[in-house]
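Protein modeling request. Please complete all fields; requests missing the sequence field cannot be processed.
Requester role: graduate student
Desired output: 3D structure, token encoding
Chains: 1
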Amino acid sequence: MAAKRWIDGDETAAEMLSRVSSERPFLLLPPLHRVPLRVGNVVELAGPSSSAKTQILIQAAVNCILPKEWNGVHYGGLERLVMFIDLDCRFDVTRLSEMLKHRIMEPIGSMYDHEELYAACMSRFLYVRCYDSLEFLATLKTLHHRLKREKKMHNLNMQLLMIDSIGPFQWVDRGSTFFPLGSHNRKCLSLQSISETVVQEIKKLLLLHPLIVIATKEIVLDNVYGMDEAKQNNYMLEESGGRSITSSTQRLPYREFMPPIWQSFITHKILVRASDDLLPIRLDQEHSLYFSEWLLPSLSFQDKFVVKDAGIFIVS
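Delivered output (316 residues):
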């Protein structure tokens, strides 16, 4: 019957766009605002330590768990569920709480009588911590059933699946071989098979749930930004072993360590890094300055942003 109603339906293009945008809204917020992100996208947020990667995840999470409107006050949120998988085991829930409270108080100036809104928003944030690759795989394999349960409980769809960060167990897995419990006839879990299984399980989730996946990745930046063009080309040729490389690879200022199956799986890639400069906000206050750059799709400019109590703001 649902299929018949869909076939017999009659709507204008404007009505169709309005319906789709409400059912599956884009994620459009700084510093990810240059390219609208939609369900099915897999975004890699790469950057060195202390480059505001987790802050960007928190900003996106707050935007999703806030409602569009509450008691006549406009918040512009998506009112959707968010799943945060913490592989670094360093997530600070107080930072999420503080940013959410700032967003709630921004239009009204006080948290008075808005504890109910705060509690409702926090209930939409789902958190899982994993200490090794086997726990991560177990989480992904059981995630479909949990998402179904949470959707039924909240009567809301999941919008974001966040992984902070992808690849923290790579160096342990590289020198280890795991055998599944209960049988020695099963395939051993090597580094390659773990990566393949992670990608396969996320693909299954994307088929069953309209999600945007954002994964952070900690990298070590090479000193490519300060090189002239000739030195940079020589550097990239050395990194590729003298083989021909694509233009997108030439612009990577770090050594890629994730397996090819993951690299081919992601649809968007963003590089973030901290600047040595401080941006004066007031006479008695300065904020660290950060840069973001789209590598996939490749854009020819960088955005500057700062992290304040209320969130991330683009600097012109």
